[in-house]
Structure prediction request, 173 residues.
Amino acid sequence: MKTIYKLLCSSLLIFSFSGYASEPTTIESQFEAALLCQAEPIDGREPKVVKWLNEQNVEVKNLDEELIELEYYFAKPLQILNVTVPRVRYLGDSGSYFYATAKGDMDMFAKSIGAKPVPTDLKEELSWGDISSYYKYTAPATAENPFPKTIIIGRDDDSKPGEFYFGCREYDG
Prediction:
């Protein structure tokens, strides 16, 4: 009888840890997936989303009624891949950039996700402002899709020591 319980428990453990993936369940995992181009950006212009975010202690500020220009502030900063994220922004016009202001080691972060330094010939193409230092395409660049979703990592002149930006850049075709 004990063997049957052991087998049953083992089966339950196997199924619970198997690749049966579902949507990210925590606010942290949902923002992480969107920031790393694994899910669509969280659109805080939709009333249902705003209500849900407020329930999660996330404040949303809509800074422009015509374009996408949102800021998300967390009551408790998110911890994403060993960096602290107190704020996320979502900007869009011809394409979009869903990005975090992060505190931590930018070079270690870039290495941890397999990002590469932006080569000189791609600086203008891959830049959002002047922040791009590292990038990682989420799919190969092809003739049909020369600009796949791209994770951009960098800092600008206004960045404080230990602060950088990272997020998902998506181009309109």
